[in-house]
From TrEMBL:
InterPro entries: HAD-like_hydrolase_sf, HAD-like_sf, HAD_sf, PhnX-like. One of its GO terms (biological process) is DNA repair. Keywords: Hydrolase. It comes from Kutzneria kofuensis. One of its GO terms (cellular component) is cytosol. Gene3D superfamilies: HAD superfamily/HAD-like (3.40.50.1000). This is Phosphonatase-like hydrolase. GO terms for molecular function: phosphoglycolate phosphatase activity. The keyword Hydrolase applies. Coiled coil: none annotated. It comes from the Bacteria.
Length: 221
């Protein structure tokens, strides 16, 4: 099997999450007057946990009316960016070297996220990763976020990959795996460094379950 492109998720896969999404979510819903003591909060937090990896505005739209969803999404992005700017952003151990090894082996690398562009850019800047990968995409760049295949296919088109079967998609949520399978990737792998469990990955028919993205270069060699 020849892999020409690796499409890698960010938070939980290449970037350590360490609860940042949940902290930012708590601040976001507080902006629309839903506190942690609100009776709605536990179910809302559970939904956020179950939809990790998906477009954040889509997640908020499932929880709130449109105006409040937009307000909460803006507050979420601002809160997450503040956490990143205060040094609460680190790579998953071995992730940066794995990306370098993939590119040295001739594999193009795309980073994808459920965050908006300003938050993705803040993360890339904090880690010094703007020049580490070939392309970085958000749901807005592709049309739809995960579990749809749009970001994977956008990376394929923009990087001139000839065959979707030459693609490996790796992420820490079932949504990442489903997006890879829907795109026709030969490898749609889950990693155990974030939100997803081995059982969840097996349930959505992941081609592989890896301990970490650092194991990807060896899988492709």
């Amino acid at each position: 099997m020849t892999i020409s492109l690796a499409v890698l998720d960010m938070a939980g896969t290449t970037v350590a999450d360490d609860g940042l999404v949940e902290r930012a979510f708590t601040e976001a819903v507080a902006a629309v007057e839903v506190s942690e003591q609100d009776g709605r909060f536990p179910a809302m937090l559970d939904h956020v946990r179950r939809t990790m990896g998906q477009s954040k505005i889509v997640v908020f739209r499932a929880l709130l009316p449109e105006t409040e969803a937009q307000q909460a999404n803006t507050a979420f992005e601002a809160a997450y960016s503040r956490l990143v700017e205060t040094g609460r952003c680190e790579p998953v151990p071995g992730a940066e070297q794995a990306i370098k090894d993939l590119r040295a082996a001739g594999v193009r690398v795309a980073l994808t996220t459920g965050f908006a562009r300003p938050t993705q850019d803040a993360i890339l800047a904090a880690l010094g990763w703007h020049d580490l990968v070939d392309i970085a995409l958000t749901p807005a760049d592709a049309g739809r976020g995960r579990p749809f295949p749009d970001m994977v296919l956008t990376a394929v088109l923009r990087l001139g990959i000839d065959d979707v079967r030459d693609v490996a998609v790796v992420g820490d949520t079932p949504s990442d795996v489903v997006s890879g399978l829907r795109a026709g990737a030969s490898i749609a792998a889950g990693v155990l460094t974030g939100a997803g469990t081995r059982t969840e990955f097996e349930a959505v028919k992941a081609t592989h379950v890896l301990e970490s993205v650092r194991d990807l270069p060896a899988l492709l060699s």
